[in-house]
Amino acid sequence: MNVRDGFFALLVTVLTVLAYLIVQPFVTYVLAAVLLAFLLYPLQRRYASRFGPRTTALGLLAVAVAVLLVPVGLVVLALGNIATSNVTDRPVLRQVERLAGRFGVSIDVPSDAAGLGEQFVQLFAGQLTEVVGATVNAFIGLTLFVFLLYYFLVDGAQFVGWIRDLTPLPPDVQDELYAEANRITWAVIEGHVLVGLVQGLLGGLGLFVAGVPNAALWTLVMVLFAFVPVVGVAAVWLPATVYLLVAGRFLAAGFLFAYSATVISWIDNYLRAFLVDRGADLHPSVVLVGVVGGLFVMGPLGLFFGPIVLALYKAVLLVVDDYYSL
Fold first, then answer.
1. Pair 199, 222: CB distance under 8 Å
2. How far apart are CA 41 and CA 48, in angstroms?
3. CA atoms of 147 and 151, how far apart (whole Å)
C-alpha cells in the first residue's frame, strides 16, 4: 500500500467513526424509519405513478403516524381514566391490598387521584433533569424519524442504486443478495408483527370474555409483550388469571388460563416458527438467539433486526460459496 492509498484508508476510517458518533444517539429512530419504509415501499411504488412520489409519500407518512399514534392515544386515555377515578373503588387495587395483607405487606394506596398524583410528583421530582433530557431526545428522535421515513420513501430507490454502484460485486451476485434480503426481511416481519397482532387481539378477546377490567388497554399491552421473547403475552394473562382467582371468579379464571395456555400458546409456538422458518429458512434456535441478542444490542428494534442479521449472514455465506466456490 502506497502513501496515497494509506491516506485515503485513514480518511475513510476517521470519517466513518465520526459519522457513527453523529448517528449513534438516534440510531433507534433511524432503524425504525428504515424498517417502516421497507414495509411501506410496495405501496409507494404502486401509487407513485398515479399521485406522484412526494404526494404518495406524504399520504403514507400521515397514515403511518396515525396508526402509530392511535394505540398510544388509547393507552393514555385509559390510564387517564384510571388515574382520575376514585382509586380505592377499583376492584383490582382492593384485591391487591387484601392479598398483600395476607402476607403481612402493607400497601399505601392514595384515596383519590390527587393523592396518586402527589406520589408521582414525589417519585419523579428528583429525576427532573433526566426526564426533561429524555423528553427532548425523544422529540428530536421522532422528528428525525418522520423526515427520514419521508425521504426513504421518496428517494429509497436512488439510495439502493447508489449502494449497488458502490458495492464491488457482480450484478448477478448483488441481485441474489438483495432478493434473499427481501425474502428474509418479510419472513421475519410476518413472524413477529403478524403473530404479535394475532396474539394480542385473541388474548384481548379472552380477557374481555373473562370479564377482566380495562380489557382494551390490556389488549394493547399484550400486543407489545408479544414481541418480547420467552415471556411474551403470558406477562399479561397470567397476572390476569391470578387477579380473577383472588376476586373469587374461579370459572372465569379457569377459562382464561385454559384459553391462553392452548390457543395463545399454540400461536406463539407454531405459527411464529412456521412463518419465520418458512421464509427465512432458519432454525428456531437461531431465531431465538437473534431475537434475544438483537434486543440486548439494538433495543426493541433488535427483535426484528437480530434475526434478519443472522439470516442475512447465512445468505451471504451461501451466495459467496455458490459464486466463488469456497
1. yes
2. 10
3. 6
Among the listed residues 272, 301, 299, the one whose alpha carbon sits nearest the alpha carbon of residue 288: 272
Mean pLDDT taken over the chain: 77
Burial 140-163 (b: 16+ CB within 10 A, else e): ebeebbeebbbebbbebeeeeeee
What beta strand segments (E) does 241-299 contain?
none
Residue bearing cell 480518511: 11
Quick check: 195 pLDDT over 50?
A: yes
Q: What's the rounded Cα separation, in Å, for the pair 189 and 193?
A: 5
Within a 10 A sphere around the Cβ of 58, how many other Cβ atoms? 15
Quote the CA–CA distance of 276 and 187 in Å, as a whole number.
Answer: 5
Task: Yes or no: say if 309 and 35 are a contact pair by the CB < 8 Å rule.
Answer: no
Is residue 288 within 8 Å of 232, Cβ to Cβ? no
Report the pLDDT value the prediction gives residue 113, as an integer from 0 to 100: 46
Query: Which residues fall within 8 angstroms of residue 289, CB to CB, at 6 or more apart?
Result: 306, 310
Half-sphere exposure of 253 (CA within 13 A, CB side): 13
CB 309, CB 280: distance < 8 Å = no
CB 218, CB 207: distance < 8 Å: yes
Lowest mean pLDDT: which of 10-19, 55-64, 134-143? 134-143
The one-letter code for the residue type at 323 is Y
- Across the chain, the runs of DSSP E, i.e. the strands, are none
Task: Give the whole-number percent of the chain exceeding pLDDT 90.
Answer: 7
Count CA within 13 A, CB hemisphere, residue 172: 4
d(CA 253, CA 82): 23
At 228 the three-state DSSP class reads coil
User: Cell 449502494 appears where?
Assistant: 163
Q: Is the dihedral of CA 317, 318, 323, 326 positive or negative?
A: positive
Q: Which three cell numbers stand for residue 50?
A: 398515479
- CB atoms near residue 272 (< 10 Å): 22
The pLDDT value recorded for residue 89 is 47
